Amino acid sequence: xxxxxxxxxxxxxxxxxxxxxxxxxxxxxxxxxxxxxxxxxxxxxxxxxxxxxxxxxxxxxxxxxxxxxxxxxxxxxxxxxxxxxxxxxxxxxxxxxxxxxxxxxxxxxxxxxxxxxxxxxxxxxxxxxxxxxxxxxxxxxxxxxxxxxxxxxxxxxxxxxxxxxxxxxxxxxxxxxxxxxxxxxxxxxxxxxxxxxxxxxxxxxxxxxxxxxxxxxxxxxxxxxxxxxxxxxxxxxxxxxxxxxxxxxxxxxxxxxxxxxxxxxxxxxxxxxxxxxxxxxxxxxxxxxxxxxxxxxxxxxxxxxxxxxxxxxxxxxxxxxxxxxxxxxxxxxxxxxxxxxxxxxxxxxxxxxxxxxxxxxxxxxxxxxxxxxxxxxxxxxxxxxxxxxxxxxxxxxxxxxxxxxxx
Length: 407
Ligand SMILES: Cc1cc2nc3c(=O)[nH]c(=O)nc-3n(C[C@H](O)[C@H](O)[C@H](O)COP(=O)(O)O)c2cc1C
Description:
Blueprint: E1 3-7, E2 14-20, H1 30-41, H2 49-53, E3 57-61, E4 63-64, E5 67-68, E6 73-78, H3 86-89, H4 117-124, H5 130-136, H6 141-156, E7 161-169, E8 172-173, H7 181-190, H8 198-213, E9 220-227, H9 243-252, E10 257-262, E11 280-283, E12 302-305, E13 313-314, E14 317-318, E15 323-329, E16 339-342, E17 349-352, H10 362-385, H11 390-405
Antiparallel strand pairs: 1-2, 2-6, 3-6, 4-5, 7-8, 7-9, 9-15, 10-15, 11-12, 13-14, 16-17
Helix pairs in contact: 1-6, 1-10, 4-5, 6-10, 9-10
Bound molecules: flavin mononucleotide.
Flavin mononucleotide is lined by residues 47, 114-116, 136-138, 141, 254-256, 332-334, 357-358, 361, 364-365, 368.
C-alpha cells in the first residue's frame, strides 16, 4: 500500500512530503511533479499568492538516475515568499518573548468566518491565530498534488488515467453532454476555468469578475474521472476497504469541499430503480495479449455495464467502468466584503477584512481532486497487485488480467 505524510506551513520555509510504498523501477522525474504543481496554480480567479510562488519540487530521496529505488521518496517545495516571513515564522525561540511567544501586538487575534482560525485556537490553546491558519490553508494541498503526481506516474504504467475538470462555478453549469473523455479533458486543459465548455468558460470568468468587483467569492463543482481501471480494486468485505468510501473521504478532506457524489450521486434518490442500476453485458475477448488494453475505451471486452450511472463502483469495488466522482466547493471564505466576527481577546465585534485572497479556486481544486483520487486508486492498486519492483507489480497485474479472461 501507498502511504504518505505532509508537513509545512503556508508561509514557512518549505512544504514537505514523504511517500512510502512506491515500487522500485518506476521512471519518475521532477518534471512529472512540476507539471501538476503548475496546473494547481493556474486558473482564472486565483489571487496574487499564486503569482509569487511558482512551485518547483526537489526530490531528496528514493529516486536515483530517474528511477524509484523502492525506498521512501522525500519531496520538498520551497515557499519563495519565505524571506518576507522568516522573522514571523522562524522556528527559533524569540529572545525575551517569554518562551518564544509572539508579542500581543503582532498576533493575529481576529478569527475569520469560514476558516479554521477560531476553533483551531480554542482546541490547541494557541495565543496567535496564525498558528492555526498557516497549516489550515489550502497551501498544504501543494504536497498532496506532488504525491498525487507520483501516484499518477505509477497508474500510467497500467493505462490508468486520472483527470479532472470543472462542471460548475456558482450558477454557471458546463454542457459536456456527448463528449468522449479524451476530447473533454483536452478541452478542459485549454480552458482558463479547466472547463470543457467554451461558452461556460466565458460565463464563469464573467461571474468571477462580477464576484471580485463585489468583494465576494464563488464555489462550484469539479469532477474527476478515472479510466482504464480493472474491475476489483477495493473490497466489499469490510467497511474501511470500500474504495468509494475512501475516495469520498479523500475528496472531502480537501479544504472547502462540502459534498461528494459518486456516479449519479444525489440524483439516484429521485429516480426509479430501473433508471439507476446498470445492466450487465459481455463482449468476447480479441486475440491480442491481455494487458491494459482490456480496460480501455467504450468497446472494451469482457463483462461491461450498458450504462455507468454507478460511477464505476458496486459494493465498494471498481466495476471496470470509468470511475466518476464529483465534489462541491463552498465559496472562498475570505471576502473583500467583510463579514462580522469577534476579537479573540477583547471580545469586541469587528468586520473581518483581508490582505489578499482567491476569488474562486474551483479549477485548482479539480487538480487537487485528481491528486487525492490518484493516491487512493494507486494505493488500492498496490494492495491488489503489490510487489517490491514495478516488474513484480506488472506480473501480478497481468496474471489477474489473464484470469479475468478465463472466467
Ligand atoms: C485551491 C484552494 C485555494 C483556496 N484559497 C483560499 C484563499 O485564497 N482564501 C481563502 O479564504 N480560502 C481559500 N480556500 C478555502 C479555504 O481553505 C477554506 O475555506 C478553509 O479551509 C475552511 O474550509 P473547511 O471548513 O472546508 O476546511 C482555498 C481552498 C482551495 C481548495
